[in-house]
Write a structure and sequence with these properties.
Elements (H helix, E strand, L loop, with lengths): L7 E2 L2 E2 L5 H17 L3 H15 L5 E3 L1 H7 L3 E6 L9 H14 L4 E6 L3 H13 L2 E7 H6 L1 H9 L3 E5 L6 H15 L3 E4 L9 H9 L1 H13 L3 E7 L4 H7 L9 E9 L16 E6 L2 E6 L23 H9 L2 E7 H15 L5 H16 L5 E6 L7 H8 L1 H17 L1 H5 L12
Helix pairs in contact: 2-4, 4-5, 4-9, 5-7, 9-11, 10-11, 13-14, 15-16
The chain binds pyridoxal-5'-phosphate (PLP).
Amino acid sequence: MAYSTDGFFNQYGGKYVAEVLRQALDELESAFFNSQQDEQFQNELAGLRKDYIGRETPLLFAEHATGLCGGGRIYIKQEGLANTGAHKINNAIGQVLLAKRMGKTRIIAETGAGQHGVATAAACAKLGMKCTVYMGEVDVRRQQPNVAAMELYGAEVRAVTNGSRTLKDAINEAMRDWAANFENTHYVIGSALGPAPFPDMVRTFQSVIGNEVKRQTAERGIEIAALCACCGGGSNAIGFFSPFIDEDSPRLVAVEAGGIGSGTGQNAVRMTGSAARDGIVHGYKSRFLLTEDGQVASTRSISAGLDYPGIGPQLAALGRTGRIEFTSATDQEALEAVQFFAKNEGVLFALESAHAGAAALKIAKQIPADKAVIINMSGRGDKDIFITSPVFRPAEWKTFLSAELERLDENTDIHNARCMKTEQGTKI
Ligand SMILES: *Cc1c(COP(=O)(O)O)cnc(C)c1O
């Protein structure tokens, strides 16, 4: 199941959209499949991956973690070392480059926690495209560091004030914009979901992760027993697993957000959770967390990137066939894994990736010493300092924040350090 058949992965996937968007999707589909045969496009993408993103990312042997676990060898694929701090840039650069090839002049995106918005804004800055990011008003308020980063990269962040003023409303607004403007505009979806061809396209751009791992393990003679990735929408997982899907081994393990418990609204477990159902939302058929009357249910996770009610259709299908095993890790387990890998490997995992880390520590114990479990560290944890500090060092963090507020009120240097806003393309 390397590619979909007519946009479907068994029972999941499809293109459930209004007629206007169908036209945009059909145009995108043929442009994407053409680009796969276009040597110039592939060369340009390879150059950006190398010099802009900083690929290939290293495959690190986690020696101390392996010793402390007592089982198989643990390796970490360091996607967090990619420019902008996570795997999302692999997809953003690919789609923005494709949009340019299609003659589009404007990029739009939706973002929840802001990570996809930041990656898209950065890719647009690099490739000289105008960028508008839709974000729920509630998220704009909660995620100021990422809003600041998007603006610094030259993007316009549009606060969405409809509905619950969060991610799903931002998606609706982005879809509306795309339907009205697709002649000059491309909509960059941030995970391996949405209507066809997005799941195929996002997986293809992210499969650079798995392709590198395949080469790196072959060169070093590493025998893989299991690959382990966290799973929000599923883009880092499917890209990491991609070259291994049609083989019988290794085990492919996707880790969902177990949150604070198994009750409805306490987690984001779409494959096995109590509120998990098949449904059609935002243009595709898959597994979603839905209420009894079919409304998208609320989710919960300490990691913003896994806190999403849907899952990519290919992951749902491969979960159903059993090729991908699904498990979950709780907030608590993720926080413990962040500390474990920081202290024992000197590597700071993003909270999302720490879910995969936590699951891999259990898997390592089940496999022999000459086999490996590889964790995809989808991102690095610098971005999580506002979430982890109040947990790890609550009193000190509070004192720090109050002191910072005072400093802002008092410090005349800050008020005097005004700077003209530099627009994209301005001579300096
Ligand atoms: C967004 C994000 C995720 C989740 O997205 P997927 O599409 O499931 O990969 C995981 N890790 C990090 C660091 C992220 O920013």
